[in-house]
Amino acid sequence: MSLSASTPVSAPASTPGPGPAPTEAELLDFARRTAQDAALVASLPLDTEGRTWIRLDGPGGSEAWLIGWPPGTGTGWHDHGGSHGAFASASGALREDSLAVRLPTEGWRTLELAEGVDRSRELGAGSGRAFGPHHVHEVRNESETEHAISVHAYYPPLPLIRRYSRAGAVLRIEQVERPEDWQ
Q: Per the CATH hierarchy, to which homologous superfamily does domain 9-181 belong?
């Protein structure tokens, strides 16, 4: 991955100062409004090899990111360590595959998923979605020729990300990342 900026950038849609924790709906509203900020979106350097990002100041102390996705890139299966969040596409389209099941929080390395838990959606420019603290998904840019750009926001700020591998119905925890791994 390429790091495009490490200092937070204030997005016009951010809410300054302490206050109540932002809801999923407020995070989604922030992501959608920020994705419409043409100057901010244009400021993101794009790389043909890997994702790029700029850290943003999110509402109510949330963690937020503007992310560039080269053609064919994705996140792999992961969760957000108990944070709830939202993301919105600013340009291009992203495919999200997710699991409609709450995973146990501890005590497992490998889990067999029941039938019917898979969900898939495409989020084109201007589209977004919010999710709760137990959300497991993968996000990718399936285009062969165009970058996608999106805005993501999480509250509380990500304490960790669990990365999973998936083979058919079997989901396996592969790695746990902490903030120092991506900031």
A: Jelly Rolls (2.60.120.10)
